[in-house]
Amino acid sequence: MLKIDIPASFALSGDRLSLEPHDPDFVQNPYAAYAELHRVAPACVWEQYGHWCFFGFDTVNALLRDRRFGRQILHVASREELGMAPPEPGLANFDAVEAHSLLNLEPPGHTKLRKLINKAFVSRQVERLRPQIATLANKLIDSFAPDKPFELLVDYATPIPLVTICGMLGVPASEGPRLLEWSHAICRMYVLAPSEADKKAADAASRDFDLFLRDHIARHRKTPGDDLLTALIAAEEDGETLTLDELVSTVVLLLNAGHEATVHQMGNAMKSVTESGIDPAALFADDKAAEATVEECLRHDAPLHMFTRYALEDMVLEAEGREIALKTGDRIGLMLGAANRDPRRFARPEVFDPSRPNNQNVTFGAGIHFCIGAPLARLEMQVALPALYQRMPELKIDGPFRYADIYHFHGLERVPVLPG
C-alpha cells in the first residue's frame, strides 16, 4: 500500500493549495499529496505556480482536448494586453528555439508541422524500428560484466532512446554526449523558477544546439540520407515546406523529447516492477504481457506530472462540480501524474497491476498535443525492459530509489544495478 505521508509544506485553505515543489517529501512521494487532493480538492489554485490545477482523470482528459485552451497565447492577445512581462534579453537564443516548437504552437502553425512530422511516427512506421532497438538493447547488455554493477539510467536507459532518435535524424551517435548536455540544460528551464545560472546555461545550450543543427541541416541538403531529417527537409503539405527555423525547432524538440521522458520512464518502471514484488518473468512472459506491463508502468509512475495550457478566451469553466472564472491568458495546470492515480477512475490506483481493465492513462497527454513520439516510447520500453529482465533474471537494484528534484518532471537520480 502507498504510504500516506502528506508533505510538511502541504497546506490547503478552501480552494488554495500551498505546496513547495522542492519539499523533499513531495519530491520523493508526490502521490501522498495527490491522494489527499483527490479526496478533498481535485481542483485548486496552487499558490507556488499561481494558477488553477486539476487533478482528476476525467477533468484532465477533457481539458487536454478542450480547444478553448492552448499552449500558445500571443496569437490571441499581445503581451501588453495580457500584462505579461517582456522577453528576457538573456534568453533570446532559448526563445528563438522555442518559437517554432510543435509543443508550443496552435493551429494553423501546429497543423502544418504535425502533418509533416506525423508520417514518421505512426505506429506502423515505428514498428519497423523494433529489430534495431532489440539489437541495441542486447549489445548494451552484452557489454555489462556479469559480476560488475552498472547504472541503469546512464548505461542502458539513456543510450536506447538517444541512439534511436539520433539514427532517425541522421545525427552521428558520437554526438550523443553533446546533445545530452544541451538537452539537460534546456529542460531545466521547464521547472518552477529556474535560477539565473540555469537560464544562462539554457540560453548557451540553445545557441550551440542551433548552430550545430543549422550546419547539420545544410549538409543534409547537399547529401540527403535515408532518415527523418531528409524527409522533413523534402516534405511538402498543401504546397508548404518547413522553414529553416521550423526545422531547427522541430529537431531540437524531437531530440529532447525523444529521450528525456523515456529515460525517466525506464527508471520509474524499474522501480514500479521492483516494488510490486511480481515476478518479472510473468510481467514480460510474451509480447502481450510486456505491452500490458508497460502501460501500467506509464500509468503508475509517469515521467511528466504537469502540462500547462492558456485560456484562449474569457470563460466560466465548469469542472469538478464548480464554476471557475478564467480570463484570456490565464494558465491552468493539468496534473498528469495525479490523474493517473485518480481513485474515481482506477480501483486501488496505488497498486501496480498490469491486469487492470481499461487501463487508459494520460501520460502522453491527449488532443492535438498528444505526444507525437508515444508509439516510439512505448516500443522502446516494450523491447528494452523485457530484454533486460530476460537476459539478467537475477538483477537487483543496489540501493534505495531516490527521485531527482526536478518537478514537474519526475524521474530517479540514479538506478545502480547488480547483475546478480
Structural features:
single chain, alpha+beta, Cytochrome p450, seven-stranded mixed sheet, three-stranded antiparallel sheet, 12 strands, 47% helix
CATH topology: Cytochrome p450
User: Structural class, from secondary structure content?
Assistant: alpha+beta
Shape field: globular
CATH class: Mainly Alpha
CATH architecture: Orthogonal Bundle
Poorly predicted tracts of residues: none
How much helix, percentage-wise, in residues? 40-55%
Strand count: 12
Strand residue percentage: 5-15%
Could you give a short description of this structure?
This protein is an alpha+beta fold and about 425 residues long.
Structure description:
This protein has 420 residues and is of the alpha+beta class. It has a single domain, classed as Cytochrome P450 (Cytochrome p450), CATH 1.10.630. 47% of the residues lie in helices and 10% in strands. The protein contains 19 helices and twelve strands. The protein has a seven-stranded mixed sheet with strand order 1-2-3-4-10-7-5, with helices on one face. Helix 8 (130-142) packs parallel to helix 19, helix 15 packs across helix 17 (287-300) and helix 15 (260-276) packs across helix 19 (374-391). The longest helix has 27 residues, at 196-222. The radius of gyration is 21 Å and the shape is globular.
